[in-house]
Design brief:
2-enoyl-CoA Hydratase, Chain A, domain 1, 235 residues, globular, 10 strands, single chain, ten-stranded mixed beta sheet, alpha/beta
């Protein structure tokens, strides 16, 4: 498995960098990789700064990292210095303090998976995803104090937040760096579902696109925004 984390020491402060996809393979049933991460995390003591720049990944890996960081005896400060999307946003919620760069974003959405089988198998997959979503909402609720219903709606819409909006909603405490305050850009919140619906509303059903493709084909092209997934992911 490609190692996506790196520990270092900066004076008296420990640093952990989470870069890129959080686990290319699922941690579900994997005893070796989580054990290796835990061994490195608890090998030293002292305050810990966790720098996050990740599009997300395996939700089970994110859940275990979240639990380990919550268990860590020193102060944990999470610094989002690019992107904390999907499963990475769950890890970010483990910070005693969450600091976000003025040019960074947080994205939250519903977990997804691939399932093959009959109708009963599809129902089991849906039930599993519903439970995974509830576990993610738990982390968001503890940090933000927002209602579970509102958090669920934000996840349904695949919501992107710039730095100020993330602070406004409680996903981050302040804008800047772990050691200093930063500026305050204008708040922005982005819903992919809203943008997609807006684009679809502009397509005239009686008019063929110049390429000669059907409206259904155009709709499918818009849906390419969704992207694929591996294992159970929030990315």
């Amino acid at each position: 498995m490609r190692k996506f984390w790196n520990f270092s020491q900066d004076g008296s402060t420990r640093r952990l960098r989470l870069e890129g996809e959080i686990s290319q393979e699922t941690w579900l049933g994997d005893e070796v990789t989580p054990a290796a991460f835990r061994a490195e995390l608890f090998a030293e003591t002292g305050d810990l700064v966790v720098a996050v720049n990740s599009p997300g990944g395996d939700v089970f890996a994110a859940a275990q990292i979240y639990d380990m960081l919550m268990e860590y005896p020193g102060k944990v400060t999470v610094y989002i210095d690019g992107l904390a999307a999907s499963a990475a946003s769950v890890v970010a919620m483990a910070g005693e303090e969450v600091v976000i760069s003025p040019v960074s974003c947080i994205m939250i959405h519903n977990p997804s998976t691939l399932a093959i089988g009959d109708g009963e198998e599809m129902l089991r997959a849906k039930a599993m995803l519903d439970e995974v979503k509830e576990s993610i909402v738990n982390a968001y609720e503890i940090r933000t104090g927002m209602s579970r219903v509102k958090l669920s709606h934000l996840m349904d819409a695949e919501t992107w937040m710039n730095a100020r909006k993330a602070v406004e909603l409680g996903f981050a405490d302040r804008i800047g760096t772990p050691d200093s305050d930063g500026g305050a850009p204008e708040p922005m919140i982005f819903s992919r579902a809203a943008v997609t619906n807006s684009l679809l509303s502009k397509i005239q059903p009686k008019k063929q696109p110049p390429s000669g493709k059907s409206i259904t084909a155009a709709h499918e092209r818009l849906n390419l925004l969704s992207g694929g997934t591996d294992h159970v992911k929030t990315a």
